[in-house]
Amino acid sequence: MQHLVLTVLLASVWIPATGAGDWCYQSQFTCDHQCNTPNKWTHANSVCGGKYQSPINIVTRKTLPDERLTPFKFSNYQQIFRGSIKNNGHSVQVGVPHLSTVSGGGLPTTYKAVQFHLHWGNNGGPGSEHTIDGEQYPMELHIVHMKHHYTDLTTALADREGVAVLGFFYEKSNSANKKYDTIISSLRNIQAANANTSLSPVSLAQLLPAEQNMTSYYRYKGSLTTPGCTESVVWTVFENTIPLSSDQLRAFSDLKFHDGKPMVDTFRPVLPLNGRQVFRSGGTVALASTAVLLVALASALGLSQPN
Fold first, then answer.
1. Is 90 an annotated catalytic residue?
2. Which entry of 90, 117, 130, 145 is annotated as an active-site residue?
3. Fewer CB near the terminus (10 Å): N or C of the chain?
4. What pTM does this model have?
5. Range of 287's domain?
């Protein structure tokens, strides 16, 4: 079942924040480990209580078309690189060591890729950060970019549009996605927090849908999805999903948090829009809206309603 949702970059944005305090996901909270869960992230960083926080629930019927949201131009996304993959204690993160850039798509300038990471549920259960019409996907990929002229993320985050994240949703497939063998096979070597290992040759393009299938997406202004929650992110959430098998999705739940407990449900719950508008690209058509149009057309023609 193909769904409309693909967020540009690997499942939620994780960037280390100085002075972020002892924050954790809800799944980490126990009597023995009473850390700051998402509803108390303001204790770790007050910015987490801001008005323009991420992730959000995207209500497709309330999105507005924006003709400026044209197809993206991806440069060097096809280039093979040898990087490292790390269990950073909150997620799986891969640094992008070569110059891959994205432009167009209504972005104010060219952005270069810095890293990607993922957010997931428990053994393939719901785990995406963004949701579409209330639906939560098993996992989400976030590819983090910064404006091309910046040399570090800290500087980029001081710019209200300094960071661009591409978010993609994953859906459960009956067969394994061979393009993800490199990532999945490396997970067994980074189960402990702070463990890292060399990554077999991989490209950003192989992890994503075909470029011609990335013209339908949503756009809004938001924040990092972990403390410090800086509100400097231009978010792109794609419609088309990435398939992974049940076994591939479950492999992420074998990783461990710092306390040795299973790394599961690594997502921040959705936050209010607080007046923000979500836009959609010209190629985006909400399924619900399409169904309504078909019913109206059938009625007008005196036909039976479509199944």
1. yes
2. 90
3. C
4. 0.87
5. 4-300
